[in-house]
Amino acid sequence: MNVHAQSVKETEPNDTMETAETISANRQTPQEYMKGDNSNSYVVKGYVSTSDEDWFKVYLNSAQDSYFSIYSDILYFQIYDSNGNPVTEEIYETDATSHYHVYDFNHLPTGYYYVRLRGTRVIDSYQFLFGNPVYRTGKVIREGERISLSSGNTKQEDIIDFTYSDCPEKAQVTTILIGGVNSGYADKVEVAYSESPSTFIKTYSAAWGSIDVPFSYNYGLDGAYTFSYTYKNDKTFTPIYSFYYIYPTLP
Fold first, then answer.
1. Model confidence over 145-195: pLDDT tens digits?
2. Between 1.10.10.60, 2.60.120.380, 2.60.34.10, 3.10.310.40, what CATH number should domain 6-132 receive?
3. Torsion sign over Cα 171, 175, 180, 181
4. Domain-wise residue ranges, the chain
5. Half-sphere exposure of 223 (CA within 13 A, CB side)
6. d(CA 135, CA 240)
7. Domain spanning 136-248 has what CATH number?
8. pLDDT digits (tens, 9 = 90+) for 63-93
């Protein structure tokens, strides 16, 4: 599944609702993922067949995400509430290349739920998480406008505008690297994001061009970034911006 996670192997017998194996919901946060902290992440691994079912019991909190993220060949799965009533019945259909799919169960109220898995052939392997989604990281590079600083033009703005189609849903920027400019070109650079009140100021005496963005700033990739350069020397340059981000894998 290519996630930072600790794994739990299914333990037989767990072939009925009465013998369902109790598992923990995945509660890894983006911050924990970035740090490689697996204390709240749980991936369940196992095997099923046409003659073998696997049952699991998990507690879900309606105030938190409840995504069923699974990597497998084609298999049947079903979700039941604590009274044994089916919540849904689906035939899991794998992606042709990744065999990976995500289902949204965020509508479920708080309580215990059962997961029933059954194979479609002699043996099928699977890995799944139930709870917070799987996180992945990415990078996008954008070239800025040509900047000319001089005693007669002491400040100049450069705007990088993202639209929703530029990035995965709910992507959050973690680091911004500014290339093509250094402390000898400008006295400082100010960075503002249209969807957040928090801004950055990097001066020539600071580590130039590398900005670590706290999660609390909520910098995404669905708005406009304004980079304001202040004169230090007569310089002309074209900035190159690298935005590193983290995002959840959603349906």
1. 999 999 999 999 999 998 766 678 899 999 999 999 887 889 999 999 999
2. 2.60.120.380
3. positive
4. 6-132, 136-248
5. 15
6. 26
7. 2.60.120
8. 999 999 999 877 889 999 999 999 987 777 6
Q: How many residues does the chain have?
A: 251
